[in-house]
Specification:
By secondary structure, the protein is α/β, with parallel strands linked by helices. The chain has five helices and 14 strands. The strands form three sheets. Strands 1, 2, 3, 4, 5, 6, 7, 8, 11 and 12 form a ten-stranded mixed β-sheet that branches. A two-stranded antiparallel sheet has the order 9-10. Strands 13-14 form a two-stranded antiparallel sheet.
């Protein structure tokens, strides 16, 4: 039985996107645990500007790859709901996509322990994307579905833990099975659900600030760039409503909406 959702966020120098990320998931969350790992830009200021009791900010300071994984474990230990939502500080959701996943979780059989979704990676700007994994079968996916899935929703099963250093971290069952790799039948495969990922774009005020974050620049992709399509593989793609939210404070970077109508999206 579904009894709530706790969002887990770990952030550092995310001033370009964290306002949009947090605002986009606020309505479905019961709690949002945000751990900041030593931001030197306006990330903390922006988080605090969202005046909502659901957001619980903890300022940790700089961490090593091993310490990063321990933070993920601490978030698991702090969670009281029976589902967690792992959301990076540069991931933005539309209401339809997010509510659709939540409804599936609520209706799912009790044996379902994780939900996997797809995503667009912005490249160059928010109007272009990278989908380089579209020709790859997800590891050990029993449905042999093409495209890369991200594990974002995890049930708080007994013994759940986060292991391995940052960059290779994963979520494991009590007996050591990694949820991302085992292709269990007790997963939700949300094949028609996409969120937006800004990891290939500048995420802080400048490149130097971005380079302060572990593996940030190394993880960027620039290949196979295309325009974000209004319909993709039969699925209508909706830009997150938060991109049109005019309550955005002046110190939060604005979204360039000039090409939405040109590319076939409604404004």
């Amino acid at each position: 039985m579904y009894d709530g959702l706790t969002v887990h966020v770990v952030a550092k120098n995310e001033e370009k996107w964290i306002w949009y990320a947090l605002k986009s998931v606020l309505d479905v969350a019961d709690r949002i645990l945000v751990y900041d790992t030593g931001s030197t830009d306006d990330t903390i200021k922006i988080i605090k500007s969202i005046n909502d009791k659901k957001i619980e900010l903890t300022e940790i300071g700089n961490v090593t790859p091993d310490e990063f994984t321990k933070l993920r474990q601490s978030q698991i230990d702090e969670t009281k709901s029976n589902w967690i939502f792992v959301c990076d500080a540069d991931e933005i959701w539309s209401k339809d996509a997010l509510n659709g996943v939540i409804e599936r979780i609520k209706a799912a059989p009790e044996n379902i322990i994780a939900g996997f979704v797809k995503y667009f990676e912005f490249v160059k700007d928010i109007h272009h994307y990278y989908m380089g994994h579209e020709q790859i079968i997800f590891p050990l996916n029993e449905k042999k579905t093409y495209g890369w899935y991200a594990i974002r929703f995890i049930k708080m099963i007994p013994g759940l833990y986060c292991g391995n250093p940052y960059g290779a971290e994963g979520y494991f069952t009590a007996n050591g099975n990694e949820l991302q790799r085992n292709g269990f039948n007790n997963y939700l495969w949300c094949e028609d659900t996409y969120y937006f990922h800004a990891r290939n774009l500048l995420r802080s005020s400048n490149e130097a600030k971005d380079k302060e974050v572990m593996q940030r620049v190394e993880k960027r992709h620039y290949m196979k760039i295309g325009k974000i399509p209004p319909v993709y593989r039969g699925v209508k793609i909706t830009y997150p409503e938060v991109f049109f939210d005019d309550t955005r404070p002046e110190f939060v970077a604005p979204i360039d909406r000039s090409k939405f109508k040109e590319n076939g999206f409604l404004i």
